[in-house]
Structure formats: C-alpha cells, structure tokens
Design goal:
Aminopeptidase, acyltransferase activity, transferring groups other than amino-acyl groups, 7-stranded mixed β-sheet, GNAT_dom, acyltransferase, transferase, 7 strands, alpha+beta, Bact_Acetyltransf
Length: 158
C-alpha cells in the first residue's frame, strides 16, 4: 500500500509546481490555448500560493500538488495535479475520497472545475459521485462538477 501524504508548499516548491503543471496539464492547455511558456510562467507566478498549496507525497516522494479552499457552503477543489508517472495508482482517488468524506462530515458540497478536454479526470469525478452542474469560461472550456444535486427541470402543469 502506498503511503500518501500532504505537506505545506514552500516558496522553494515554486519551480517544482511549475514543472509539474507542465507535465500534468500541458497537453490539455495546448489543446485549448496552445502552450506559451511566458504566459504559463506568468500565470503560475500569479497563482502560486505556498501558504495555501500542499505538496502530495507518495512513499515519501513528491508526486503532485493540491489546493483546496474551505468555503462557507462548500469545499472547493481549486487544483489537483499528479505527475503522469504517478497517475493511475489510486493517489488521486484516495485524496478525492478524503475530500468527499470531509464534505459529508461538514455537511458541505465538494465542488471543482475541470477542463472540458480532460476526459480522464471527468470520468474519475463521475465515478466518485460528482456530476456536471454547468459549463463556463471562454467557449465553455470548463465544467463545474459538484456533489450538490442538480435542480430538476421546470415543473409543467398545475
């Protein structure tokens, strides 16, 4: 069994997180916008938040990063990225189940956004009980998924 852990990110983790982002998300970003190194570095510099991000470890090795926001009515999974060498090993599923358990214990929904081109992640989230709530972003490139039950369609008749 793999020992999965989390540790707080530090400023020294910035380059690791950028390289991880390229490895884990580069193909998806390229499909939508094309990979522009300067744009991605600027985005990373603005987004990197060592006080809020966590480094995912497996058997003591760094394998990814996690950013979770605890909001009043939901737990929002802002980002989860696993290096491709460590995907398909149950690490992401384990972390997602932990977040789902926390959400249930706190009577909150678990919510996240996933790129429409990231079919593998969408399939995982659906298997774990999340469903599409809406699409948003430029050309609806993001799917909001949540444990929150969707509203049913309009009621017709009297």
């Amino acid at each position: 069994m793999t020992a999965i852990g989390l540790r707080p990110a530090t400023t020294a983790d910035s380059e690791y997180c950028f390289q991880l982002h390229r490895a884990a998300m580069g193909a998806y970003i390229t499909q939508i916008w094309g990979w522009d190194e300067h744009v991605q570095r600027d985005f990373h510099t603005g987004a990197f938040s060592p006080g809020r991000w966590q480094i995912i470890t497996a058997d003591g090795s760094e394998v990814g990063m996690l950013h979770v926001e605890h909001r009043p009515t939901e737990i929002y999974l802002a980002r989860i990225e696993l290096h491709p060498d460590h995907q398909e090993r149950g690490i992401g599923s384990h972390l997602m189940r932990t977040l789902l358990h926390q959400a249930r214990q706190q009577d909150r929904d678990l919510t996240l956004d996933v790129l429409v081109v990231n079919q593998r992640a969408q399939a995982l989230y659906r298997r774990l009980g999340l469903h599409e709530v809406t699409r948003h972003g430029e050309n609806d490139i993001k799917i909001r998924m949540s444990t929150k039950q969707p509203l049913s369609g309009p009621i017709h008749g009297s």
